[in-house]
């Protein structure tokens, strides 16, 4: 059964997909940095905002669209990734590895 999404949720997902498509247009050496930037931006905002805070979500959508327009230009070849983003990515990876180990242990029992 498909989950029905609000218009705002559809807009956020459309912006996320557009950002991921932008990553694919960048040089292979810098794609991981762009992908991390996109994932960190969306995930941290998703966890820091209430889904009911419509005005803040709309503001972030406008800001994200403007930012993405800049990054979509062919002249943009690289992006800066902060230490905070790298730490966040490492925590995400460690969490996934822990989940995989736990699920494989449970599966083997």
TrEMBL record:
InterPro entries for the chain: Complex1_LYR_dom (IPR008011), Complex1_LYR_SDHAF1_LYRM8 (IPR045295)
Record lineage: Eukaryota, Fungi, Dikarya, Basidiomycota, Agaricomycotina
Protein family membership: Belongs to the complex I LYR family. SDHAF1 subfamily.
CDD domains: Complex1_LYR_SDHAF1_LYRM8 (cd20268)
Gene Ontology annotations of biological process type: mitochondrial respiratory chain complex II assembly
Keywords: Chaperone, Mitochondrion
PANTHER family: LYR MOTIF-CONTAINING PROTEIN 2, SUCCINATE DEHYDROGENASE ASSEMBLY FACTOR 1, MITOCHONDRIAL
Residues in Complex 1 LYR protein domain copies: 10-70
Organism: Amanita thiersii Skay4041
Listed name of the protein: Complex 1 LYR protein domain-containing protein
Source species, domain of life: Eukaryota
UniProt main location, coarse: mitochondrion
